[in-house]
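tool_log.txt
---
The assistant was asked to compare two proteins side by side. It first ran the structure predictor on the initial sequence, then on the second. Raw inputs and outputs are pasted verbatim so the downstream comparison step can read them without reformatting.
(1)
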Amino acid sequence: MIRGRVGGRPERTDYDNVNRNHQTPNFIVGTVRLLEPYWEYLRRLATYAQFCVEADMHVPVCRDFWMATSVFSFSIAMLLVLIMTRRAITERLELYRHRKRLEARAMVAEPGIMKQHIWRGDEAIGVDLSHEELAAEIRKTIRSKSPSSRENEVPRFEMNAKPPPEKRTPMQHKIIYLSHGGQKFYDQTRFSVLTLLDLLLKQERNDFRIVIFTDRPEQSPAHDLIRSVRVTPGELKRFRGPLEFIHRVKLEILRRAEADFGLPFIYVDCDTRWLNIPDEPFKLLADGGRQQSGAVPVFYMHKFEGTMGADFYPNYLRLLQQKRNKLVEWKLRADPPWTMWNSGTIGVPSGAARLFDDVLEVTDDFILDVRQRIFVEQLAFSVVASSRFQVRPFEECLAHYWNYGSEVPILLRRFFGSLPRDLPIEKLAERCARFPLDRSNLEKLQSLRSSRFRRWRAKVRNSLFKRKIDLKAFWLRRRRV
């Protein structure tokens, strides 16, 4: 509406100004018009494809469509073949390197070199020297010693002098952890370690040593009773073996713990919570696992799960029946019943040398001949331990929430995230001891749609991974034969 002119131009009303401000920007209109030909092309292409799919393949007008489809399908197939070939070559190279490492481990020096390092007894001494010449050589050697070497000599004691008193330190009970693989495992390890530390601090105990084997030592709690041992990513990869078995890492770490710290010790999974200090188990394990002379040694695992049968691990029952000759060769229980124990705790007595070597050998043999590989390490521990020891449960000292392995890390992440960063470790341990892991809350988390989707995604991912491992196991079985 024009009311008049201002500066030679018609004056507009407020309504006209508002209407102009709400018009569609020109660039959007231009963009839509620019995309219209492409959209029309895609629509015609979809119509053409639909017609060719529904029509006979020999229709002349659809010849180009089927040619393009064949070329595209062939390209995808060739790409998949290349990917699978690359993976197969990589896996064969890894198997070759693993075999070379085993050969190098068993290698000794050549006979000529070994002969140079054999003790020859009196040949090393010039026995043809006279007493005067021998005394002169001794004096010459003594004079040639530097003053610094005399300072490092062990002091001599008089005949009637009493030896210095021995320093007596309390026996160190060793608790072993393995922590690797992701933040949720570091959080669970920290929580479990701090629940034990709280029990020890409240009773003013310093006779325990908590050892954490981990690839991230900075994630471990810092305290005098806690020690972190670094494990490199290369070692973790090598410990998994040719079939990339995650629980094989645990066996290699236990071998290393025995070599570095000795027996006895108790290994604990990270998805645990301490209830009591294990004084009684360590008392039995320190005595070689024997309560009295001649008794069967005691061995600890977390809990008894059941006897293998038609309705409880039937595939493992068939495997043990097929491996009867091997079990006899290994001097293990060769006939049923065979029991299954949860390996969330491994309490090893002082007289169990080479136990982990034997369990590792059984695991590497069993894992090739069974499809359900996730519990093979637990099966090997159960068979070996029940054949040689009196296996006892560890439930009174430790809670193991393995069936809530996806839900508890969510609660722990929220819990640790809500705490002050400068909180003293004593207070942090006390907070962990009081933190509730209520089963009703965990079951609610399990029932959430996001949790169900997370479990389904993990199941699909694990299924694809298992198919690859099945192929590796097939090649290893052929090589074994």
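(2)
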Amino acid sequence: MAPEYYSATYQGETIRSRYPIGKGLLCPICRSLLASPRIAVCGHAFCSSCVNKWLTSNTQCPMCDSDISNAKPTKSKLLSEIISSTELVCAGPPAADGSSCTALLTVDTKDAHAETCPYILNPPTPPPVRLAPAGIRMGSKKSPTTQTKKQRETKSSDGKVQQPSAAEQALEASRKITRRRIEEMKRSQNIPVSNVLGIKLDM
């Protein structure tokens, strides 16, 4: 059974961890793992770029509505160390045989690992999409319109011949009418039946 991972984003990239990432480490503005965390005077933490952009058009904290415009948010060395030491796992896809990268990473080492990880550099090729022939749905038998009358008259378990359904009988009647009309056109215009309507019928 594949291990369960917890996903988040960091600077626009998906990251995975074996453990849940606490809400206190997520920016309440972009919902990603804090990048260059800054703490406002109210005590809430944000990404540096997020809070700076927020303050260009707002004066209140998005979490508690406190006025945070009078004091510039400060760096948080403690939060930076916690985020830098957060254990991550490789985000590369599993190989075709089901194996996956087992490297343990941090936000500081994940980029260097991505440059050498074979699971990231050589992702498995998805299987080709198999297209069904025209007129036949995937996973279904041939349409009754491509079967002969003998093929449609199958025998049941007790040996009795099963008659075609009402829809098949109506289709066969429509075919006979079409054949008859084409024969009439052929006789009246003296042209080959294969040229009539550009089709070829089994007479």
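---
observation on (2): The mean pLDDT is 79. The chain has two domains: 6-121, 144-198.
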